[in-house]
């Protein structure tokens, strides 16, 4: 069982930046994909960014060029650097890890962007 803990959420002004971090317990080498999803009020959970064990990255079109995902296998962490934040980025952000087709989730961290 993989346990994920997020940190770094908060309240920022539009145009500001935040860095989210997620720490994973267990063998990081067994995790195929790590990423970040978000769920805004009244909306479905959506992929924000992901990175595979082979360092292949994917980004939602809405965050491309503003967000950067990174993974450190040695430290068992994945981070999301969020720049030029917009009010529509407001959501609960969840860390995700996929291990042999089993999806694991963190508890979520709130990101609020004021206009």
Describe the overall structure.
Helices cover 0% and strands 57% of the residues. It is globular, with a radius of gyration of 13 Å.
User: How many DSSP H or I helices?
Assistant: 0
What general form does the structure show?
globular
N-to-C terminal Cα separation, in Å? 40 Å
Helical coverage, percent range: under 10%
Q: Which residues sit in consecutive blocks of at least 5 with pLDDT less than 50?
A: none
Radius of gyration: 13 Å
Quaternary status of these chains? single chain
What is this structure's SSE topology?
Elements (H helix, E strand, L loop, with lengths): L2 E5 L2 E4 L4 E8 L7 E7 L6 E7 L4 E3 L7 E6 L4 E6 L8 E9 L2 E4 L3 E6 L1
Parallel strand pairs: 2-11
Antiparallel strand pairs: 1-3, 3-8, 4-5, 4-9, 5-6, 7-8, 9-10, 9-11
Structure described in brief:
The chain is mostly beta strands and 115 residues long. Helix content is 0%, strand content 57%.
What are the key terms here?
115 residues; mainly beta; 7-stranded mixed beta sheet; 4-stranded antiparallel beta sheet; 57% strand
């Amino acid at each position: 069982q993989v346990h994920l803990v997020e940190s770094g959420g908060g309240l920022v002004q539009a145009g500001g930046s935040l860095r989210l971090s997620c720490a994973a317990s267990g063998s990081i080498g067994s995790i195929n994909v790590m990423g970040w999803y978000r769920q805004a009020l009244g909306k479905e959970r959506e992929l924000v960014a992901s990175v595979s064990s082979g360092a292949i990255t994917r980004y939602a079109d809405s965050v491309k060029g503003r967000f950067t995902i990174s993974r450190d296998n040695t430290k068992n962490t994945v981070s999301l650097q969020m720049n030029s934040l917009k009010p529509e980025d407001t959501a609960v952000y969840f860390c995700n890890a996929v291990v042999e087709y089993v999806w694991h989730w963190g508890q979520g961290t709130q990101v609020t962007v004021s206009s």
